[in-house]
Amino acid sequence: MVENVEVESDNLEEIQTQQSSQTLEERLAARDERLSRLEGQCRALVSQVTNTSLRSSAICNKLEDLHEIYGETSRNLVTHSNPNASHKSTKEVKIEEEDEQSESD
């Protein structure tokens, strides 16, 4: 009877070891799946940020081109209709800001 108790306790320890190793394997598998999913989401996010940045640059360049083309014409029209109006293109404003910064340095 003592031997049966020892055998049963050995079996119990083996079962607990198997269960803990299975849960460890399950945890590792779940962790790997989670990491793979997060890596995929990160790749998608980086791609989306890159595309948004490229579109933003293209829109900004197009806007500057339009200001260069139509800015002078519209400024002349506004100035003729309202001589007190003062409209500046974005490049003129940027140049003035840079001049002010260089003077303050």
From TrEMBL:
Name of protein: Uncharacterized protein
Compositionally biased residues, Polar residues: 14-23, 76-87
Species this protein is from: Henosepilachna vigintioctopunctata
Region annotated Disordered, chain positions: 1-26, 76-105
Compositionally biased residues, Acidic residues: 1-13, 95-105
